[in-house]
Amino acid sequence: MSKISPPELDARRSSGNAPYVLDIRPAESYRREHIEESHNVPVYDDLRRGDESELRRSLEEVPDDGTVVTVCKAGIVARKATSVLEEEGYDAVTLAGGMRGWNGYRKGSIGYRLRTAVGRLLP
After folding, report:
1. CA-based, 20 to 30 A from 77: which of 12, 29, 34, 53?
2. CATH code of residue 87
3. Domain that holds residue 45
4. Which position has the higher pLDDT, 71 or 110?
5. How far apart are CA 119 and CA 111, in angstroms?
6. How far apart are CA 63 and CA 74, in angstroms?
């Protein structure tokens, strides 16, 4: 299963080759903050419980002609969404670090920079 880093997603969004960003967090979390032009399908709690049915029912809303980037709070539950999308034939990747990673990247936080540096050092 593939991941995309926040800087890679940002570059793709700026290049005119923007992927479809699927935010699976609850609607309330999405309303508070989200990646511009992302789309919310609030199946986070379902996926945490192991229920993929609502995500599968919602796939008709998700285009299948390009890359889909799944987003959750920290990137863990989004991996399950990515797996479901891949099973259904989508080109899907998970946003590494989820919204926490995205916010850290956008703000240039020291925590994000340290995690990124450590991540480069570890295999």
Report:
1. 12
2. 3.40.250.10
3. 3-121
4. 71
5. 12
6. 24
